[in-house]
Amino acid sequence: QLRLVESGGGLVQPGGSLRLSCAVSGFTLKEHVIGWFRQAPGKEREGVSCLGTSGSGAVFADSVKGRFTISRDDAKNTAYLLMNSLKPEDTAVYYCAAILWPTWTVNAGCVPRDYAYWGQGTQVTVSS
Predict the structure, then answer these.
(1) Residue 39 class from Cβ within 10 Å (0-12 exposed, 13-18 middle, 19+ buried)?
(2) Computed from CA positions of residues 78, 49, 40, 125, in that sequence, does the dihedral angle turn out positive or negative?
(3) Tens digits of per-residue pLDDT, 60-76?
């Protein structure tokens, strides 16, 4: 059974950091493009960052460039999103997702509708 399980969310003050983890099971992560998405109340789900398979690059939303880092440990079947310099506008439910897409490149962007497998989400709240 395919599963993605996010963890690491929580309440953090503005300027703080969090690292989200996405543990996958039931499929081999190294063959899949992995993405992090978020959805704030009343807003559409948006792409935060997506990472291709080995060597194919990463994309970031303009709003998080220079603050967020995406990574993957294929040996552990786990992906990560390190979030620094958090702002109140980063508050949202964060989801990880995956898709088998051997020809993915950064030109594909980070679009939710392209992803087949989703986790349940983890809440991130940035507030003083």
Answers:
(1) middle
(2) positive
(3) 999 999 999 999 999 99
